[in-house]
Recover the amino acids of this structure.
């Protein structure tokens, strides 16, 4: 986990809006060893770690976006950017008010908040060009993120009190947030509104009641993941989620061999996943070769014959599995292609390994999200089906396109899986069309 800090030194000036002028400061934002505000000032021709801005708009943005920053996950952004209202609540540049802010994106993820940063792009001449970009998201413990943002908001309010601005909009918003945080029922309502993409008091009461019922059934984490997967369904999101978990599925009884010890607070999700996949391979007595489909079916307690007549729901945005009420689990896959189906089953295995430690009757959710849970699944499935050591030995130094195709066919995985494994382990150069960001910020 990473450390996130916002440091400031007051440097006020006269402004028509006192809240802005009196809270102007030199501000530095830091993430582990990175200074996310490191910039080149075109006019002074200097490079600085701090930016000279008013903290009032930034504190207002953090306060106005408080609940969504803490609970609304990043929807599937592989094919298109998130909707405008999501971006306004999660991209720091939305603080605006005429100040230049670094391109930072925040997205909650269970007990952490993911942070992305992109350096200024293109040839456009700007007064300030930010110099720090991150190659991937960094995870900040949610309680540490909360303390840092709360401290910033509190400092700005205290500063305004010192100069006689006691009735600011920021103080009013923070007062409402504080009240809700101290009222369990209201706090839960604000949380569910945010999970579903609504601002405070913006979600109809009937949807809140429906959300409470569904979350009680499948658990808060599974609910959050499904809400992210079906974010584009807007008003019909809960209906789509209900339809998915109520759909007909295949009955299975996961093998006890999936009870692995995977706890580790110091490693990234994909590192834990790779270790778990290798451990399970050892338990199966096969650490290298391609896995037969029968092994995947057996681990989940599924029958081969179940797949012969299986027709996935049209355009399903997630796969789920959960207790059927009779001691077994119901699996609802969404992939039809044999190779994609193998990867999906391996993701179910990984998610069961991860979830079984958390609850006796887990609900499994596999979706196209960037959460730690989905990263764990994808990393587990890739290493389980195609161990990177075996892959490299099979390629024997030949990383040509043709060789990668043959390797993908040998292990019965997609070429994309082979590419990812080789890039993630340093055998092929990494590439990112969005400069390490989860989506193109210019779109």
């Amino acid at each position: 986990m990473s450390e996130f800090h916002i440091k400031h030194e007051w440097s006020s000036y006269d402004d028509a809006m006192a809240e802005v002028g009196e809270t102007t400061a030199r501000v530095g934002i830091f993430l582990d060893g990175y200074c996310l505000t490191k910039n080149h000032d075109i006019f002074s021709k200097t490079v600085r770690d701090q930016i000279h801005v008013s903290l009032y708009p930034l504190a207002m943005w953090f306060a106005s976006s408080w609940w969504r920053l803490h609970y609304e996950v990043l929807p599937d952004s592989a094919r298109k950017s998130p909707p405008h209202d999501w971006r306004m609540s999660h991209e720091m540049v939305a603080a605006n008010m005429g100040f230049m802010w670094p391109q930072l994106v925040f997205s909650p993820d269970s007990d952490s908040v993911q942070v992305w940063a992109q350096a200024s792009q293109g040839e456009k001449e700007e007064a300030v060009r930010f110099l720090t970009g991150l190659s991937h998201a960094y995870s900040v413990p949610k309680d540490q993120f909360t303390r840092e943002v709360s401290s910033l908001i509190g400092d700005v309010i205290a500063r305004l009190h010192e100069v006689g601005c006691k009735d600011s909009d920021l103080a009013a918003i923070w007062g409402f947030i504080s009240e809700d945080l101290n009222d369990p029922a209201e706090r839960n309502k604000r949380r569910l509104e945010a999970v579903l993409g609504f601002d405070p008091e913006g979600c109809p009461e009937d949807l809140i009641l429906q959300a409470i019922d569904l979350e009680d059934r499948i658990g808060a984490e599974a609910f959050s993941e499904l809400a992210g997967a079906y974010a584009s369904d807007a008003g019909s999101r809960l209906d789509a989620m209900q339809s998915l978990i109520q759909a007909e599925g295949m009955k299975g009884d996961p093998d006890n061999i999936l009870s692995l010890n995977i706890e580790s607070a110091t490693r990234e999700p994909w590192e834990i996943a790779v270790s778990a996949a290798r451990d399970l391979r050892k338990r199966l007595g096969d650490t290298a070769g391609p896995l037969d489909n029968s092994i995947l079916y057996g681990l989940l307690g599924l029958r081969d014959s179940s797949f012969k007549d299986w027709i996935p729901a049209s355009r399903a945005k997630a796969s789920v599995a959960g207790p059927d009420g009779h001691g077994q689990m119901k699996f609802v896959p969404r992939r039809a292609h044999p190779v994609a189906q193998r990867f999906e089953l391996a993701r179910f295995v990984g998610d069961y390994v991860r979830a079984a430690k958390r609850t006796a009757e887990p609900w499994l959710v596999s979706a196209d999200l960037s959460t730690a849970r989905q990263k764990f699944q994808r990393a587990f499935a890739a290493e389980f089906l195609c161990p990177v050591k075996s892959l490299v030995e099979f390629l024997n130094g030949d990383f040509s396109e043709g060789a990668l195709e043959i390797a993908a066919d040998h292990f019965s995985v997609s070429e994309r899986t082979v590419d990812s494994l080789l890039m993630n382990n340093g055998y092929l150069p990494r590439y990112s069309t969005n400069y390490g960001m989860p989506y193109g910020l210019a779109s």
Q: What stands out?
A: The mean pLDDT is 92. Residues 4-174 form one domain.
